[in-house]
Amino acid sequence: MNKILKITNQKILVTGGAGFIGGALISWLLKNTQATIINLDKLGYASDLSRINQDIELLNVSSNRYKFVLADLIDNEKIIDLVNDFQPDIVFHLAAESHVDRSIASPRNFLDSNVIGTFNLLDALKNYWLNLAIERKNSFRFLHISTDEVYGSLGSKGYFDERTPYNPTSPYSASKAASDHFVKAFYYTYGIPILITNCSNNYGPWQYPEKLIPVIISNALSNQPIPIYGDGSNIRDWIYVDDHVEGLIFVFEYGLIGNSYCIGSSEEHNNLEIANKVCRGLDVIRPNLQPYENLIKSVNDRLGHDQRYAINSKKIKEKLGWKPRYKFNDALQNTVKWYVNNQDWCNRVSMKKKLI
Ligand SMILES: NC(=O)c1ccc[n+]([C@@H]2O[C@H](COP(=O)([O-])OP(=O)(O)OC[C@H]3O[C@@H](n4cnc5c(N)ncnc54)[C@H](O)[C@@H]3O)[C@@H](O)[C@H]2O)c1
């Protein structure tokens, strides 16, 4: 990032900061700014604060720079009080139920957290923002972190970009699409300065071990079958989590109010390729009697499984100057190493709640 940062010592509210991407964002903010951060999270099954606590200790962050607040976005009154007490200058909204399989098993949780929760936050911020003095009102930003899944599924050709019509197909993507629409509605109706990002599949350390890459590693290391949906041909555009975080910072710094930005790395790989690559990486780091690939096993396909997601990131690259910095094979291999060295963490957080 070569221009002067607008994030200096503002007050930043991060929702969902006990999750995978929110934790990486808070880590970036602690290292690169003097901002005061409030991390609002309900501490659901996928939450863990070890990473942030580790950073706070390493960086010797003073207690008045970072605070964790236990709150559920469903609790309307509490959210109003928190917003009014903290008086944020910037909000990064990441809190959401995020696992498609869980949305198929329990869709209502996704309606509650992702739609009603986002609405409650927007409504509290609207009343707070409307009463701000003009200078703070103008510099206030609400960043809504969304997904490429709102666009539905692609065939073998084509890419999603900011003009692609929404066409969500799972309860997860429908709830994220609905939250995006509410965010846009609050911009058009009340003028709240919002920005939206729609990013592709993230990977990296500290991801709750129910998502594809940590599942492959945990199962391989414990000599269990590695489950791959159907024929493994479903394609995702994989992005390293720190590239996503830098994308969010670029959008905050240089994005045009009211705009959406698609973020992706143009690293399209199908699930079987990912499983094979991870297994080959494990063969090098932790050799076994037989290649880990032998453990890969096809299981019944996910209901309504989207075939392909792929992002055209031209807008964020050309208009804002962002580009991904991490090379896929290197970042994937470092991720594999991290999980191999942190299986204790994976086991500890997985104990909290198994898939319903
Ligand atoms: N993981 C991805 O590949 C990806 C890609 C694009 C966009 N996103 C979006 O990024 C955001 C973060 O994703 P993640 O992978 O870090 O998810 P995650 O599941 O790891 O973390 C989400 C966090 O939000 C919290 N949360 C959920 N509902 C809440 C509520 N009602 N009140 C307060 N806290 C609540 C959870 O407790 C959890 O700590 C989500 O909005 C997701 O839709 C994720």
Explained architecture:
- By secondary structure, the protein is α/β, with parallel strands linked by helices.
- The protein has a domain at 11-207 and 239-266 and 305-325: NAD(P)-binding Rossmann-like Domain (Rossmann fold), CATH 3.40.50.720.
- 45% of the residues lie in helices and 16% in strands.
- It contains 13 helices and 12 strands.
- The protein has helices at residues 20-32, 50-59, 76-86, 100-105, 107-130, 134-139, 171-190, 212-221, 241-254, 271-285, 314-320, 328-341, 343-352, and strands spanning 11-15, 36-41, 66-70, 90-93, 141-147, 194-199, 201-203, 226-229, 235-240, 260-263, 268-270, 296-299.
- The protein has a 7-stranded parallel sheet with strand order 3-2-1-4-5-6-10, with helices on both faces.
- β5, α7 (171-190) and β6 form a beta-alpha-beta unit.
- The protein is globular.
- The termini are far apart.
- The model has no long low-confidence stretch (mean pLDDT 95).
- The protein binds nicotinamide-adenine-dinucleotide (NAD).
- Nicotinamide-adenine-dinucleotide binds next to α1, α5, β5 and β7.
> pLDDT under 50 segments (min length 5)?
none
| SS-based class | alpha/beta
Strand order in space, largest sheet: 3-2-1-4-5-6-10
> What's the CATH superfamily of the domain at 11-207 and 239-266 and 305-325, by name?
NAD(P)-binding Rossmann-like Domain
Bound molecules: nicotinamide-adenine-dinucleotide
Chain-averaged pLDDT: 95
Write down the overall geometry: globular
Name the quaternary structure. Answer: single chain
Could you say what the CATH architecture of the domain at 11-207 and 239-266 and 305-325 is? 3-Layer(aba) Sandwich
Total beta strands? 12
- N-to-C CA distance: 42 Å
